[in-house]
């Protein structure tokens, strides 16, 4: 592909990455909204249980405001979560369409996907990942095209420092014929005739003409050409060093991203385990509360801790999805992984 096509592929890849990140952010916020709704339901159930126990005389009426305050707090969290989802929707719509569309503005985006973390990433070695990145990344292809152009420019500038030699030669034949106009003497029959006679003289090469020559130019103290050649040399070496630096940076970035992907998986696993344990602790506190051996404060603290662990789990999910998208971008495989056709992008098809 040409440099312009590679540049377009890089822009298209960046756009797809932005859309993916905002979409997965919307999915994460939607899951946060669902967990907030569940937390509100748990708080409302606890408020109902508290009222029942107050009615039967198990609890004092002073416990009711704490349970009501917890419900109000969860309702506020729900409102904030709904606002965050709307903001994520608007941000995604802004990327999907740059023109004013009332139908799109009024539409609600309902994510059908869930952030799924596979059991294993099955990542090959860093060396193999680096090789894939060098073969597929558009910026690497653009850098190679620029290096080739700089090398060609260097050769063109170098030619002005070399001697110039020019040799030329030419040969042609002539024919002369016509009707004599005698003023005395006898006409030469060799020249008497018409076009055929002249053409025969040409083919017989009766009047050949030949010319040849040579020209040589040796530049002496061509300072301007030497300066241009020196500048092109420096630019070419600079381009080579920049390419080597970028190549090393690719290795570092991929190595760091592999570590980041593994860390995101570990954080998610820890968050899931913590959330599971906190759910068990909350259930245990609720059972103890029903038997009258726990307090409202303990229940509320357990509920808040569960909300915190659920939020941490969603954050870990979003971090993993963004790490996966970043890995595909580093490898230059974003379009292929997400089934985006470069040909359709070039043709302007949606």
Description of the molecule:
The chain has 350 residues and is mainly α. The chain folds into two domains: 3-154 and 234-347, Outer membrane efflux proteins (OEP) (Up-down Bundle); 166-178 and 188-217, no CATH class. It is built from ten helices and two strands; from the N terminus they run αααααβαβαααα. A two-stranded antiparallel sheet has the order 1-2. The two termini are 22 Å apart. The model has no long low-confidence stretch (mean pLDDT 84).
Question: Quick summary of this structure?
Answer:
The protein is mainly alpha-helical.
Question: Topology of this structure?
Answer:
Elements: H1 3-55, H2 63-96, H3 102-106, H4 126-136, H5 138-159, E1 164-173, H6 195-204, E2 208-217, H7 223-290, H8 296-331, H9 334-337, H10 342-347
Helix pairs in contact: 1-2, 1-5, 1-8, 4-7, 5-7, 7-8
CATH superfamily of the largest domain: Outer membrane efflux proteins (OEP)
Shape assignment:
rod-shaped
Rg (CA only): 41 Å
Total beta-strand segments: 2
Tell me about the biggest sheet?
A: 2 strands, antiparallel
Strand order of the largest sheet: 1-2
Beta-strand residue fraction: 5-15%
Instruction: Write down the CATH class of the largest domain.
Output: Mainly Alpha
SS content category: mainly alpha
Total of helices: 10
Q: What is the averaged pLDDT score?
A: 84
Order of helix and strand elements from N to C terminus: HHHHHEHEHHHH
Distance between the termini: 22 Å
* Total separate domains: 2
Percent of residues in helical segments?
over 70%
């Amino acid at each position: 592909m040409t440099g312009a096509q590679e540049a377009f592929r890089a822009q298209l890849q960046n756009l797809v990455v932005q859309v993916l990140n905002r979409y997965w952010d919307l999915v994460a916020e939607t899951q946060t909204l669902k967990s907030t709704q569940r937390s509100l339901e748990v708080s409302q159930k606890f408020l109902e249980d508290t009222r029942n126990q107050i009615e039967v005389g198990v609890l004092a009426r002073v416990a009711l405001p704490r349970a009501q305050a917890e419900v109000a707090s969860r309702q506020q969290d729900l409102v904030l979560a709904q606002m965050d989802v709307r903001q994520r929707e608007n941000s995604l719509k802004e990327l999907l369409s740059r023109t004013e569309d009332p139908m799109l503005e009024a539409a609600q985006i309902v994510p059908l996907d869930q952030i799924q973390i596979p059991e294993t990433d099955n990542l090959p070695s860093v060396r193999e990942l680096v090789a894939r990145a060098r073969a597929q990344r558009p910026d690497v292809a653009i850098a190679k095209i620029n290096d080739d152009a700089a090398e060609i420019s260097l050769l063109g500038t170098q030619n002005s420092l070399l001697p110039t030699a020019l040799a030329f030669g030419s040969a042609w034949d002539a024919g002369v014929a016509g009707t004599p106009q005698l003023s005395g003497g006898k006409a030469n029959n060799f020249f008497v005739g018409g076009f055929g006679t002249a053409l025969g003289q040409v083919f017989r090469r009766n009047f050949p003409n030949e010319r040849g020559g040579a020209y040589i130019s040796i530049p002496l103290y061509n300072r301007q050409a030497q300066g241009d050649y020196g500048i092109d040399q420096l630019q070419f070496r600079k381009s080579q060093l920049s390419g080597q630096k970028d190549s090393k940076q690719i290795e570092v970035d991929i190595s760091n991203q592999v570590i980041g992907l593994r860390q995101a998986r570990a954080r998610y696993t820890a968050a899931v385990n913590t959330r599971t344990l906190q759910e068990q602790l909350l259930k245990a506190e609720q059972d103890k509360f029903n038997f009258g051996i726990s307090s409202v404060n303990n229940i509320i603290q357990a509920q808040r801790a569960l909300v915190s662990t659920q939020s941490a789990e969603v954050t870990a999910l979003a971090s993993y999805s963004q790490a996966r998208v970043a890995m595909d971008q580093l490898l230059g495989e974003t379009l292929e992984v997400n089934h985006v056709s470069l040909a359709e992008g070039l043709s302007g098809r949606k």
